[in-house]
């Protein structure tokens, strides 16, 4: 008796919990998925107000020094630029020379930086070499194919030259607009002021980026040379190669430009970077507007303190209206309005029960926060920078793009001077705050979503929704595999076939290793996904191919490759040799597929959490609902119709081209849909080396194919 009691040892609590969850996997999956989606919808309610984590920043602690005299100098530069722009033949060279001369006159070290325009082409071996694919330098290396940046450096009187703050003003030197000229004038007024102050502890670099070949391209080219040793100046850009270069230097004719060098100069390690752009949106507002863009490649974000000081100074010191991007189509969503009103009602009831319960926000704020949150998640998941600041983040430099829009027309000189003064004092305040830092930004958050310029959701909050969504995957995978083995064992015992009731070693071995067939199917499909991801490299080599023909070629080659893999490695529809009614191969296949999806989502959450979050919203319901249609139709009519409709709907939404088209139609309307949109979208992903492209090809698309395989499985 004692021996029997000792032999019945209870399993550990963690094991008993696992067994309980596996036995109730359906209920657990429904609860977790519902809770995950609900947690995602509650993120705007759980958002916190932003705050300055680093005390040394001290934004607004000093009075601004920028005066109307500096703004007058800025207007003088603007007028000279506009006058130079009238001569289109020399504008591409005259404007960089003019900006460099103004930099030199202010007392800064100035040099020219030449870069070549480069073509963006997909190349798998260079995918993670940088966020901006260097591509291939154009064959035409004449002077007309060169971009020229003008760079000025102010050496800090109280610094040791080990740190620097970067100011960037992109402009099109070939055809400059008034707003771009104002951007240059705005930064020049501040740059000339900084040459006279005695409180600078960090060097100041002003990069007037020639963006005729793209804003990001000019900044990225300068950063590459800044962090890579360069042993020559402007190289081929001399009088022997290009006569127009004489207009750049003008060393003999203009004595003021003799201090301008063609040798690349450097300052210290970059502490922060601000990309400053003046735009004329002509919105009907009572205040000047400041738009902040922070998303960089693969969902990277700058330290939140940098955004916080800009937002604080803009709102509380200069009276600007601060904006961040939002998904405007959600602002008119009816279901979102209803959900927001429910949350507002619950918050009112909670405050009546206990005034200390601060739950719920007004419905209008909830809708605004959800639209902003959706935009923040989308641009982080896209993995493409939203401005030239993305080039700095690739070198772990905190940077943002500031677009300042006046409330009046830029042609009004009086109002324009007031606008430049207010904007210049804002940038001066940001520079003073960063100048106070004794170390790099590190106190605040790097992983966050914005729900408003002054509200954010930290990683400790938004990861709860992702964890709840993926939690059912290992439980369901274990339940499917366990049920398939139990079903197969009971069928073997009850079968009249002596071959199935035999307990010899080959039969047991075949039953124990039958999951290898499912693993082979999953391997085939994921191998196909890797091949599909590499096909664009071959398609790009085709001459004179349009996006539509490239898309059709990609689809046909993908289908052909899948058929070839099935033929070489064996068709996954070949079942294990058991009687057809007893075949439970689809359950084991689904179990292995779910395990692969869990691994893919887990790895993607490390690289780009926003991509993993959106992918989990699409993939998890699709993977959990996947069920052979032949088995579904054997049930009741209502149940069969419901499950079939859900599977088909989730399969349609989970297909990447369909998901993109639905998103674009929601944002821009159905009239804007084009068959080549998906190819153009994917082309932008690989051009920027976005990890989302690898996720689509190696994780999402194979899981979608496997779900379709399970739906059509011949039970």
From TrEMBL:
Annotated transmembrane regions: 459-481, 518-539, 551-574, 586-606, 612-629, 641-663, 693-712
Extent of the signal sequence: none
Pfam families reported for this sequence: Gaa1
Region (Disordered): 487-506
InterPro entries noted in UniProt: Gaa1
Protein name: Glycosylphosphatidylinositol anchor attachment 1 protein
Domain of life (superkingdom): Eukaryota
């Amino acid at each position: 008796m004692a021996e029997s009691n000792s032999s019945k040892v209870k399993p550990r609590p963690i094991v008993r919990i696992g067994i309980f969850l596996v036995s109730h996997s359906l209920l657990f999956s429904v609860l977790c998925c519902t809770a995950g989606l609900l947690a995602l919808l509650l993120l705007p309610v759980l958002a916190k107000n932003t705050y300055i984590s680093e005390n040394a920043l001290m934004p607004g602690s000093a009075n601004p020094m920028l005066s109307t005299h500096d703004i007058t100098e800025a207007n003088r530069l603007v007028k000279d630029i506009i006058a130079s722009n009238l001569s289109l033949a020399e504008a591409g060279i005259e404007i960089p020379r003019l900006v460099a001369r103004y930099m030199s006159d202010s007392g800064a070290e100035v040099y020219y930086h030449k870069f070549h325009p480069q073509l963006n082409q997909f190349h798998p071996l260079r995918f993670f070499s940088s966020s901006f694919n260097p591509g291939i330098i154009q064959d035409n290396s004449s002077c007309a194919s060169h971009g020229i940046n003008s760079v000025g450096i102010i050496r800090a009187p109280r610094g040791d030259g080990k740190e620097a703050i970067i100011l960037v003003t992109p402009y099109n030197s070939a055809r400059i607009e008034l707003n771009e000229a104002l951007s240059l004038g705005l930064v020049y007024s501040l740059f000339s002021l900084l040459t006279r102050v005695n409180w600078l502890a960090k060097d100041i670099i002003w990069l007037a980026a020639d963006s005729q070949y793209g804003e990001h391209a000019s900044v990225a080219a300068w950063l590459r040379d800044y962090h890579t040793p360069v042993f020559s100046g402007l190289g081929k850009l001399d009088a022997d190669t290009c006569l127009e270069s004489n207009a750049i230097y003008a060393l003999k004719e203009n004595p003021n430009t003799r201090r301008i060098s063609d040798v690349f100069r450097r300052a210290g390690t970059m502490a922060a970077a601000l990309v400053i752009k003046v735009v004329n949106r002509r919105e009907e507002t009572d205040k000047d507007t400041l738009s902040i863009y922070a998303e960089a490649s693969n969902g990277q974000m700058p330290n939140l303190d940098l955004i916080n000081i800009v937002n604080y100074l803009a709102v509380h010191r200069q009276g600007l209206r601060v904006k961040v991007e939002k998904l405007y189509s959600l602002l008119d969503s009816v279901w979102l309005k209803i959900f927001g009103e429910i949350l507002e009602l619950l918050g009112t009831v909670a405050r009546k029960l206990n005034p200390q319960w601060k739950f719920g926000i007004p419905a209008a704020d909830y809708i605004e926060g959800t639209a902003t949150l959706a935009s923040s998640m989308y641009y982080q998941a896209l993995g493409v920078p939203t401005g030239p600041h993305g080039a700095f983040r690739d070198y772990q430099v905190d940077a943002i793009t500031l677009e300042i829009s006046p409330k009046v027309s830029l042609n009004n000189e009086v109002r324009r001077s007031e606008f430049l003064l207010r904007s210049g004092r804002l940038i001066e305040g940001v520079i003073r705050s960063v100048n106070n830092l004794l170390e790099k930004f590190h106190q605040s958050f790097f992983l966050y979503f914005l729900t408003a310029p002054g509200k954010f959701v930290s990683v400790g909050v938004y990861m709860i929704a992702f964890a709840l969504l993926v939690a059912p995957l290992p439980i369901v995978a274990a339940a499917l595999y366990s049920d398939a083995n139990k079903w197969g064992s009971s069928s073997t015992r009850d079968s009249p076939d002596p071959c199935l009731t035999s307990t010899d070693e080959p039969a047991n071995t075949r039953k124990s290793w039958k999951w290898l067939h499912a693993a082979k199917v999953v391997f085939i499909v994921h191998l196909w996904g890797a091949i599909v991801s590499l096909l664009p490299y071959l398609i790009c080599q085709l001459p004179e191919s349009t996006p539509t023909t490239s898309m059709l070629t990609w689809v046909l080659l993908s289908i052909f490759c899948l058929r070839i893999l099935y033929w070489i490695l064996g068709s996954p529809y070949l079942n294990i040799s058991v009687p057809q009614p007893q075949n439970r191969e689809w359950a084991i296949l689904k179990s292995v597929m779910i395990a692969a999806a869990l691994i893919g989502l887990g790895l993607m959450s490390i690289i780009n959490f926003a991509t993993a979050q959106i992918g989990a919203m699409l993939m998890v319901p699709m993977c959990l609902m996947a069920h052979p249609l032949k088995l579904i139709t054997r049930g009741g009519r209502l149940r069969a119709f419901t499950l079939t409709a859900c599977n088909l709907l989730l399969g349609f939404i989970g297909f990447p081209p369909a998901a993109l088209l639905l998103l674009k139609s929601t944002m821009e309307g159905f009239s804007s849909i084009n068959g080549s949109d998906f190819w153009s979208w994917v082309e932008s992903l690989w051009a920027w080396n976005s990890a989302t492209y690898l996720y689509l090809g190696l994780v999402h698309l194979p899981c979608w194919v496997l779900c379709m395989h399970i739906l059509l499985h011949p039970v």
